[in-house]
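Researcher: I'd like a candidate sequence for this fold, 145 residues long. If you have to choose between options at a position, lean toward the conservative one.
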């Protein structure tokens, strides 16, 4: 279990806490890419907060639109609901960076009215099926202190 211990910093007025937890495999997969898992928090945009229970879905749709314009083409984004009882939105994103095909699994959860937690597991496309269960296990072990 990895914990961020003893690290604190004041966040001045006008700044956002965009801290993240990043874990990386010690060795790359066959594709040459070291699988990694990143958990971030993003503020729910003000214009989406009013959507109440639809806010998270609108947030995810906005993220998809941003991916399609910022990731190098071709990019494939498939949206699904989590297999667990939560039914939270998930994405599978396939794209190529520096000639290496990559796959990302991205899970979203609105942890309060103003914050979205985003978990992203990235691996080489050829390695993804082997490491995806690891990403899910890592997320199940995640706790907010």
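Model: Candidate sequence:
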């Amino acid at each position: 279990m990895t914990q961020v211990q003893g690290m604190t910093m004041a966040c001045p007025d006008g700044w956002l806490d965009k801290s993240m937890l990043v874990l990386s495999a010690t060795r790359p997969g066959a594709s040459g890419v070291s699988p990694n898992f990143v958990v971030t928090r993003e503020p729910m945009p003000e214009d989406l907060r009013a959507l109440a229970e639809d806010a998270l879905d609108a947030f995810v749709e906005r993220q998809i639109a941003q991916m399609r314009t910022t990731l190098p083409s071709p990019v494939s984004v498939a949206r699904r609901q989590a297999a667990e009882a939560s039914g939270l939105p998930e994405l599978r994103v396939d794209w190529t960076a520096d000639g290496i095909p990559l796959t990302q699994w991205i899970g979203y959860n609105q942890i309060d009215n103003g914050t979205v937690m985003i978990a992203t597991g990235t691996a080489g496309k050829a390695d993804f099926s082997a490491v995806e269960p690891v990403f899910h296990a890592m997320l199940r072990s995640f706790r907010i202190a």
